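User: My instructor asked us to take a sequence, write out its structure as tokens, and then describe one feature of it. I'm not sure where to start. Here is the sequence I was given:
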Amino acid sequence: MEKFIQEQRKKIGLRIQKIIDILDLKPTQFAALTKLTPNTITHISSAKGFNSNTILHISFYTGMPLDVLLDLSSNKIDKKTLVKNFWQNVETHNPSAYNKFKEKRFTIVEAIKKLIEEASFFDKPKKTGEVREYLETEYYKSASSATISQALNNLFEEGLLRRKKIGLRNYAYYK
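Assistant: Let's start with the prediction itself. The structure tokens for your sequence are:
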């Protein structure tokens, strides 16, 4: 019986991790936005254990009913609905964490826009890692590669940057 329980915990942990990945968050960010502790998210991810209230909490913030959240036989998650419901619930029920998170993302976008408009930084193509390192060094703004990549992609879509493909999934961005 213990082996069965441990296997189910592991599957639930993988499911929750997939949700965190879809939301493009770090586990610590997900914890803060859902009013859980980072240790709780770590325990779920590592299958160390969690209680039903924790799962109900995640169900509430993700907008996923328990039968969908715990449907371990399905690998499918409606990404668009998940993202919409999650941010709507966080904004409504945890506005201070929501505003803090959005402010950080906004600041990163603004810092990149400043580099586009006022500097020669993007005169030569730059990879995401190079942009991240520069922002950390010059602006003391720390962010994940995923956050920087999303900001760069958004600015590309707005027509403020051009890009060229490097390898299978990577791009270099330039003016």
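For the description part of your assignment, you could build on this observation: The CA atoms of residues 9 and 48 lie 8 Å apart. Try explaining in your own words what that tells you about the chain.
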